[in-house]
Amino acid sequence: MNNRLAFPEATGIAHLRFANSFASLPAAFYTRLAPTPLPAPYLVAASEQAAQLIGLAPPACASEDFIQTFSGNRAAADSQSLAAVYSGHQFGVWAGQLGDGRAILLGDVAASDGGRLELQLKGSGATPYSRMGDGRAVLRSSIREYLCSEAMAALGIPTSRALSVIGSDQLAMRERPETTAVVTRMAPSFVRFGSFEHWYYNNRREELKTLADHVIAGFYPELQAASNPYHALLAEVTRRTAQLMAQWQAVGFMHGVMNTDNMSILGLTLDYGPFGFMEAYDPGHICNHTDQQGRYAYARQPQIGHWNCFALGQALLPLIGSVEETEAALGNYQAIYGAKLDELLHAKLGLASRQPDDDKLLDAMFALMQGSHVDFTLFFRRLGNLRLDGSGGDEALRDLFIDRAAFDAWALQYRARLKLENSQDRSRKLAMDASNPKYVLRNYLAQTAIERAQEKDFSEVRKLQQILENPFDEQPQHARYAELPPDWARGLEVSCSS
Ligand SMILES: Nc1ncnc2c1ncn2[C@@H]1O[C@H](COP(=O)(O)OP(=O)(O)OP(=O)(O)O)[C@@H](O)[C@H]1O
Ligand SMILES: [Mg+2]
């Protein structure tokens, strides 16, 4: 009889077996180097759910071994760490060579779903691609990336994950000196649209093909059988990107820096910088203070997603073979985006069927929300409380509107629409609550946690992360985290500084 306990040590760091499939590419794709040590590192937070994805037990995440490994101070066994080269379009302009200027790929490890996950340190020191940068990331931006990666995963939105944030008292100069940190990110691959553009714009067809074959074999093996696998790759990435954009719009997420070097070839949300979640609804809202033209404003994200797919298509054109085929692969973007957004918005409104006037109902709703600067998250969450017989439930919803008469008129139409499909209050609310999160990472919540963390109190980072792990649950004990931002938060500005 086997009466031996499985000791938690069995799932510690020492048991992570690193390989590095990216390192099997030719040397031109990267520079092999070790992270720069982070002085006197300390654990700020670790995500148990992310840890589980690579079979790490929670106690392992508090161990000295963990802190040393994921600060970059101790080389993980068998890790062949490297920084990858890529290029990209930034704000619509070709930026030439970029690359991992402050990220170091440790390698890939077995994931609990049977696949593999790459582990990458962000903020782990200068690389040959750092240009003028110091290779570091500040605690502020690292906490934002950590919290939002995990929050997006909990919302069911494809994203790179964040295993941990490890801080240090070492300072980096931004607008003012700030302490630094390292985030450990996880994704099956960190290859970006800009990784392909790099070889295309350097006229290196051989490397372009090598990269495409690597991505297809590793992450899209089903496409190998297609008559033109490169066409199939572009079509699939286009599909994923279009769906991702719909998911962002439906939850009010704004990325802030949708440059092609921040676009994942796997359709994941990548690079959490000056992101934000829509609060007072304004389709023109720009979350990145540095983006003065509003290229990446909320309402423009879907179109920019398409533009970025075109940039990828341009880079893949030599492999695909013809402009016609390349355009065909890109051609379904709008239809896929539209269908996904339609599906998500119907779910948000608790509508099970499609009716001819649904678009009018939605347009009128968004116009009212904009006119009254209604909080995006609160609106949809409270909409689920509305009762069909008009017997109440909508007081808190109605309170969000300046023009209550206009809201009442819209609510009449909405009720009439619900009656067309024999909607039931209870089941509709349950379904709507599963589509409309109660908790999102509002900027002021992140800011509050960051300010505490800067005083070395990490409890708020950890608490916030746990609340955001179950964004659709009521969690009445945490109801204040779902409230409107306080007055002091109105002037909060988020820029590219990180
Ligand atoms: N402090 C820094 N030191 C060195 N390079 C940097 C620094 N900040 C940004 N970069 C580099 O500038 C380019 C664009 O930066 P961007 O903000 O999009 O990426 P990032 O946040 O560093 O990383 P990622 O896209 O990996 O999440 C990238 O090549 C990035 O590595
Ligand atoms: Mg980036």
Automatic annotation (TrEMBL):
Q: What class of enzyme is it?
A: transferase
Question: Which of this chain's residues are annotated to bind ATP?
Answer: G99, G101, R102, K122, D134, G135, R185, R192, D271
Per its record, the protein catalyses: L-seryl-[protein] + ATP = 3-O-(5'-adenylyl)-L-seryl-[protein] + diphosphate; L-threonyl-[protein] + ATP = 3-O-(5'-adenylyl)-L-threonyl-[protein] + diphosphate; L-tyrosyl-[protein] + UTP = O-(5'-uridylyl)-L-tyrosyl-[protein] + diphosphate; L-histidyl-[protein] + UTP = N(tele)-(5'-uridylyl)-L-histidyl-[protein] + diphosphate
Q: What is its EC number?
A: 2.7.7.-, 2.7.7.108
Task: List the keywords (alphabetical).
Answer: ATP-binding, Magnesium, Manganese, Metal-binding, Nucleotide-binding, Nucleotidyltransferase, Transferase
Q: Which residues bind Mg(2+)?
A: N262, D271
Q: Which cofactors is this protein said to need?
A: Mg(2+); Mn(2+)
Give the record's family classification.
Belongs to the SELO family.
What task does this protein carry out? Answer: Nucleotidyltransferase involved in the post-translational modification of proteins. It can catalyze the addition of adenosine monophosphate (AMP) or uridine monophosphate (UMP) to a protein, resulting in modifications known as AMPylation and UMPylation.
Return the protein name: Protein nucleotidyltransferase YdiU
Source species: Collimonas rhizosphaerae
